[in-house]
Amino acid sequence: MQSNVGKFFIFCLALSLLSGCGFKVQIGSQENKEMELEQVRKTAEQGDAESQRSLGIRYYQGIDVAQDYEEAVKWFRKAAEQGVAEAQHNLGVCYKDGTGVAQDDEKAAEWFRKAAEQGYVDAQYYLGFCYHEGIGVAQDGGEAVKWHHKAAEQGHAGAQSNLGVCYTHGIGVAQDDVKAAEWYRKAAEQGDVKSQHNLGVYYLQGYGVEKDNEKAAEWFRKAAEQGFASSQSILGACYAQGTGVEQDDEKATEWFRKAAEQGNESAIEQLKKREEQ
Q1: For residue 31, what is the DSSP state?
Q2: Distance (Å, rounded) from C-alpha 156 to C-alpha 147?
């Protein structure tokens, strides 16, 4: 089993869509939404930062107005320049994606920093990512860990997952499997699929935790049920070999097939071997 699995870890680097990263707008229950919108617009034009933030979100998401990314950026900037952390973060995402403004990684990192320094958790996570990858800033593992740690302490599952990977590989910190396992567990318990997979690997190999095949299979199952192909393949191998679960060829084939359908090469190979038998 060990030769098939190896020390396989996933670093959670994919940036979420803007709509899932703290963009919030409070829509009242008044029947006349047009009047509400005009009131928000009026106070925004008078310089109210919260209204500027809200109006930016309305334009970004097309809430009661025609979707207009340039208008969204305009209002995010006004609120951001008044120090509204969420607006600073949102403006950073717009620069990152080139949405409503020319794509600019350096400006994205600048705005993420402003929001991160105010404790805005998503911005801390993104700034950690920027430092890890060297996007808009000089690559710096120590700074990546610093900002991931701040976000992780606030319960950000992606940051917890990434911090676990940093400890796994000694990126910006001394390599420490025990601490890696701790952070993977925090993220895994929040449903982070990559951490569930990584924690399964840790239990399977005995990295930073006592080796436990049953717990390994349990975490692989959680990730597999979320559609994570690598976990599906390994869970198939667990059933094929009776590792942490009762041996079951039908279930092994079932999980190999799920992984193979996603293009997992190991699972495809296992299915071919089974067909040849």
Answers
A1: S
A2: 11
What is the DSSP-derived secondary structure letter of residue 241? Answer: H
Residue 102, token pair as written in the block: 């020319």
pLDDT attached to residue 5: 39
Let me know if residue 16 belongs to a domain. no
What distance lies between CA 45 and its chain's CA centroid? 35
Confidence of residue 9 (pLDDT cuts 50, 70, 90): very low
SS3 letters across 43-94:
HHHCCCHHHHHHHHHHHHHCCCCCCCHHHHHHHHHHHHHCCCHHHHHHHHHH
For residue 243, tell me if it sits in a domain: yes
d(CA 249, CA 263): 21
User: Could you give the CA distance from residue 232 to residue 85 in angstroms, rounded to a whole number?
Assistant: 40
pLDDT digits (tens, 9 = 90+) for 84-143: 999 999 999 999 999 999 999 999 999 999 999 999 999 999 999 999 999 999 999 999
Q: What pLDDT was estimated at residue 6?
A: 37
Whole-angstrom CA distances from 232 to 100, 146, 193, 248 are: 40, 33, 12, 14
At 23 the three-state DSSP class reads: coil
* 234 domain-assigned: yes
Domain that holds residue 242: 227-277
Structural domain tally of the chain?
Answer: 1
Q: What are 189's two structure tokens?
A: 């318990």
Position 117 in a domain: no
